[in-house]
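Lab notebook, bench 4. Continuing the backlog of folding jobs that were queued last week. Each job is logged with the same field layout so the records can be merged later without manual cleanup. Today's entry covers NAD(P)-binding domain-containing protein, a 245-residue chain. Filled in by technician R.K.

JOB TYPE: sequence-to-structure
TARGET: NAD(P)-binding domain-containing protein
LENGTH: 245
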Amino acid sequence: MKLIVTGATGLVGSEVIRLALRNPAVTSVVAVARKPVLPPANAGPEADTSKLQSVLVEDWTAPYPESVIQHIKDADACIWALAITPTRSQGMDFAHVTVVCSDYTINGLAIMAALANKPFRFIYTSGVTIERDQTKSLQFLSEYRLMRGRVENAILDYAKQHQALGVEVTVAKPGGIEAPNRTAIISDAMKAMLDAFGHTPTVHLSELAAAMIDQSLNGISKDPLWGEDLVQIGQRVLRKEDYLV
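JOB STATUS: finished
OUTPUT FIELD FOLLOWS
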């Protein structure tokens, strides 16, 4: 399987790359980013770092240049982990946040799907608080959560409208993400807030990445993939030695 990964320098994207390089079923990993992506130092001796291709994109809203197209054509799946997080978005120009989170994603999906193998599986990394129902009145981060919800709706609609291209889409919606050297403790207030959504609040980073790789390889099982789904899939496919520690 040829896998495209965006957001490759971020927390989730870098773990996807680490596990993909360790997975023999993944034959090529195309990291699309603004700056060069190197094989992770902690990939381990089982990783085949020769599978990694680093591809640079400067303008994510324009047609990709031929140099990029040559690398991403004939892909089988994309794990899209590129976004501005809710915390980072605060204090930023919301128009810019929207361009990065929405325009980049929709443009990227359209370009990749036209060049990809069939089926083409597109796994979008989102979050448990993101709201697809645009009629809802939200108490916190309303503008951001609704905007990201529109992105989810747009990519799902794209898949329905382009069934002839074999496009399959799902959205991973974890709550908190646990990872080494990252604060995994969730405050009582935050836990109560996440619990209100009725889904598992935390997912280990390796389980999240492994679950999305599994969906890329073996087919999309459902939409959305809530925290408990990601934990179940991740724990099923991960070996103990594959976990990031």
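OBSERVATION: The first strand starts at residue 2 and ends at 6.
SIGNED: R.K.
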